[in-house]
Amino acid sequence: MGHRCYSASTTEQTVPLAHTRNIGIIAHIDAGKTTTTERMLYYSGFTRRIGEVDEGSTVMDYLPAERTRGITITSAAITFTWTPSSSPTAAPAPHTINLIDTPGHADFTFEVERSIRVLDGAITILDGVAGVEAQTEKVWRQAHAYSIPRIIFVNKLDRVGARFGPTVKEVAAKLNGWPAVCQLPVYDPDTRGGEDVFRGVVDVVEKRVFLWDGGDGQKIELRDYEWLEEQRPELYEEAKAARVALVELLAEHDEELVEVFMELEDHALIPAAAIKASLRKSTLKGDGKIIPIFAGASFRNIGVQPLLDAVVDLLPSPLDRPPVAVSYNQGKHRGTLDVTDQSKVCALAFKVVNDPKRGAMVFVRVYSGTLTRAHNLFNTNLGVKERATRLVRMYADEAVDIAAIPTGHIGVIIGLKHARTGDTLVSETTGPSTHKSKQKNSKTPQLATDTLQLRPIAVPPPVFFAAIEPNSLSDQKHLDEALAMLLREDPSLHISIDEDSGQTLISGMGELHLEIARDRLVGDFKANAEMGRILISYRETIAAASQPVRTVFDREIAGKRAAAACTVSVEPLDPTSTTATTDDGNTITITITTPQITDPATGESTDTRLPKWLTTSELETALQNGASAALGRGPALGFPVRGIAAHVSVDVSTDVLGPESTLAAFSSAARVATTAALKEAAGGESVLMEPVMDVVVTCEEKDLGKVVGDISGARGGHVLELGGLDAEADAEAAGGEVEREVDLMRVYAPGVKRSVESRDEGGRKRSVRARVPLKEMVGYLKHLRGITAGRGTFVMSLEGWERMNGNRVREVVAEVRGG
């Protein structure tokens, strides 16, 4: 028995890369991400006061819109130092933790995507009452796509209705992984006969008990298993069972732990260090098959310090991650990056923030080399040179100047004028190639550093749009500049010009997304503009193929004659086609024909060659860009075209019209010909496609009938699945037809009993999964709250586009044209 206060280090320390952790906190909205982060900052000594979301006093939610709404809108990065608790095997060493707090709202899923892209590990936070919610499943899949090692923190175990065991079972059912229960919650019976009081956690691995006595959570009472056996005999038996289950689960995947067990022949005697090593090995695989589970209540300041210890013990350093995949020569060659090569800097720009005082701040993750102040960089995506005039480390909205950003770390460059999200930055090279084969006569291609690119960050398509207009003509220039800065910050926003009306249209992921964009334009960038009502971004398509359309483009561009020709035909895309499509689900095939020419004097035949000012790859790119531009605006209402196969062909002998046949001329010819082919295929008839959403509604069981009736009746949706927060009942409902790697019957879920079983006090939670047209989901939250007495929630994500019937098409046409 004893008391322990965690030590905190507030001074800047240089730690080895093995003691560095780049982690993120991901979860459903309102699971407690920011609250947990604030406790981490406090216990590490970074802050002297705990910030609260409800008070608007948090470090991480610093934007006015975040503090007003009480939600995280933009991901915030911070760096702090944590010295883990002393271990019997080694002295504690300080660790640098670069942490990113991500949003939980579905409208800001791109913020999560670009943060996960540069992380090495993640903490997934679950609400102990609500369990694994829909957005949690989505962010879990996002992390899984990058093979990010993850641990789970079951939060809010102090709330009425919280149950740890069923939540663990739900992790197995919904996240398809084996829960490795590392902690059990400890409750004290309420002497007044009310709800049990959450006091602390049992550390199953170290065989000890952490008890918190209230206050700021700094003071922790440490107890051993003898105390647990005497004071909580039922919990003691559960803790022994939990250790047996943990060891047996790990032993199924780790032969080394089997050898330790065979030697000792007792689960209780296996050293904690051996279990931690096995847990770490399984977690670092990043496949999510074994998921370490921890417990706590961040708002009550319980469980956060052991969670930080788990970050150090189980999540990877940059050295533990697999080699970084890169490509060369526009993706034609692939390879990996040597992170130990300090001679060359390679960094990924994953976020851009426009600060009114500092200018453009480019957040980067350095994958090799050390980025120093005044470093000359080359942007391989844009082909431009830039200079890193200033380097800073971010502490939410505070910036501290630093001399360098070493390998494996996250920092900010100030002074880059062109870098965007997803751009690769490398050391500026003086020669044409720095990656050369050392073997003579080797078939390995010479790969130039200035063509190296890291894996890009996928940008989801927008589904809502609104018109935005300046208050006066004199404000147009400032609005255009503000929009350009906003797009550089958030690539999931799109800007387009309606050719018919001349209006500027801004498109985004959701209603809240566009509302925040409007607030930023007016409040942060001081743009004098008004945004119209938020509308849905539909798509157009064609019902039949067109005839080949040959177009001759001949006009002046920038004062010079440009002339070229090409032939284009379009047809509906076969849904079963496996050909790679563009972001809007189209395919573009390019054919360049070089017929043979017979010399009448000699009778010899030779292939027609491209003029010296054109190359095949450049011509293909120009034609591709021209056709893509035409597919961005449909023939009927000007919505982007989807589900189209466009075939663009150029006959060198007839379509190259002389020295005026430049790349710009061919691009323009492809655009005009594609537009003409689309109009012929459409034949004046509007074939519209509407976005269909994958919607998951969570409500109490007594409201289930009203929710299902509303979705399938008034909103024209199709209910796909009914589920509950009882994992065993969901498994039975599935009838064994769902393919799972996890056998739910073998999953260990602690049966920790509480004196008052209160989960059903507010009604059993149920979920409804459905496919619903986006148009019917506009304003749905207010309606859902009305029919569920404010207790219903929902999340939705884009599933795809469906063709609309005649009546719905007429409604949309009338709405768009104002008829």
UniProtKB/TrEMBL annotation:
<keyword id="KW-0378">Hydrolase</keyword>
<dbReference type="Pfam" id="PF00009">
    <property type="entry name" value="GTP_EFTU"/>
</dbReference>
<dbReference type="InterPro" id="IPR020568">
    <property type="entry name" value="Ribosomal_Su5_D2-typ_SF"/>
</dbReference>
<dbReference type="InterPro" id="IPR041095">
    <property type="entry name" value="EFG_II"/>
</dbReference>
<feature type="binding site">
    <location>
        <begin position="101"/>
        <end position="105"/>
    </location>
    <ligand>
        <name>GTP</name>
    </ligand>
</feature>
<dbReference type="GO" id="GO:0005759">
    <property type="term" value="C:mitochondrial matrix"/>
</dbReference>
<comment type="function">
    <text>Mitochondrial GTPase that mediates the disassembly of ribosomes from messenger RNA at the termination of mitochondrial protein biosynthesis. Not involved in the GTP-dependent ribosomal translocation step during translation elongation.</text>
</comment>
<dbReference type="GO" id="GO:0003924">
    <property type="term" value="F:GTPase activity"/>
</dbReference>
<keyword id="KW-0496">Mitochondrion</keyword>
<keyword id="KW-0342">GTP-binding</keyword>
<feature type="compositionally biased region" description="Polar residues">
    <location>
        <begin position="425"/>
        <end position="434"/>
    </location>
</feature>
<dbReference type="InterPro" id="IPR000795">
    <property type="entry name" value="T_Tr_GTP-bd_dom"/>
</dbReference>
<dbReference type="InterPro" id="IPR009000">
    <property type="entry name" value="Transl_B-barrel_sf"/>
</dbReference>
<comment type="function">
    <text>Catalyzes the GTP-dependent ribosomal translocation step during translation elongation. During this step, the ribosome changes from the pre-translocational (PRE) to the post-translocational (POST) state as the newly formed A-site-bound peptidyl-tRNA and P-site-bound deacylated tRNA move to the P and E sites, respectively. Catalyzes the coordinated movement of the two tRNA molecules, the mRNA and conformational changes in the ribosome.</text>
</comment>
<dbReference type="InterPro" id="IPR000640">
    <property type="entry name" value="EFG_V-like"/>
</dbReference>
<feature type="binding site">
    <location>
        <begin position="155"/>
        <end position="158"/>
    </location>
    <ligand>
        <name>GTP</name>
    </ligand>
</feature>
<comment type="similarity">
    <text>Belongs to the TRAFAC class translation factor GTPase superfamily. Classic translation factor GTPase family. EF-G/EF-2 subfamily.</text>
</comment>
<dbReference type="InterPro" id="IPR005517">
    <property type="entry name" value="Transl_elong_EFG/EF2_IV"/>
</dbReference>
<dbReference type="GO" id="GO:0032790">
    <property type="term" value="P:ribosome disassembly"/>
</dbReference>
<protein>
    <recommendedName>
        <fullName>Ribosome-releasing factor 2, mitochondrial</fullName>
    </recommendedName>
</protein>
<dbReference type="InterPro" id="IPR035649">
    <property type="entry name" value="EFG_V"/>
</dbReference>
<dbReference type="Pfam" id="PF14492">
    <property type="entry name" value="EFG_III"/>
</dbReference>
<dbReference type="GO" id="GO:0032543">
    <property type="term" value="P:mitochondrial translation"/>
</dbReference>
<keyword id="KW-0547">Nucleotide-binding</keyword>
<feature type="binding site">
    <location>
        <begin position="27"/>
        <end position="34"/>
    </location>
    <ligand>
        <name>GTP</name>
    </ligand>
</feature>
<feature type="region of interest" description="Disordered">
    <location>
        <begin position="425"/>
        <end position="445"/>
    </location>
</feature>
<dbReference type="InterPro" id="IPR053905">
    <property type="entry name" value="EF-G-like_DII"/>
</dbReference>
<dbReference type="GO" id="GO:0005525">
    <property type="term" value="F:GTP binding"/>
</dbReference>
<dbReference type="InterPro" id="IPR027417">
    <property type="entry name" value="P-loop_NTPase"/>
</dbReference>
<dbReference type="Pfam" id="PF22042">
    <property type="entry name" value="EF-G_D2"/>
</dbReference>
<dbReference type="InterPro" id="IPR014721">
    <property type="entry name" value="Ribsml_uS5_D2-typ_fold_subgr"/>
</dbReference>
<dbReference type="InterPro" id="IPR030851">
    <property type="entry name" value="EFG2"/>
</dbReference>
<dbReference type="InterPro" id="IPR035647">
    <property type="entry name" value="EFG_III/V"/>
</dbReference>
<dbReference type="InterPro" id="IPR009022">
    <property type="entry name" value="EFG_III"/>
</dbReference>
<feature type="domain" description="Tr-type G">
    <location>
        <begin position="18"/>
        <end position="319"/>
    </location>
</feature>
<dbReference type="InterPro" id="IPR005225">
    <property type="entry name" value="Small_GTP-bd"/>
</dbReference>
<dbReference type="Pfam" id="PF00679">
    <property type="entry name" value="EFG_C"/>
</dbReference>
<dbReference type="InterPro" id="IPR031157">
    <property type="entry name" value="G_TR_CS"/>
</dbReference>
<keyword id="KW-0648">Protein biosynthesis</keyword>
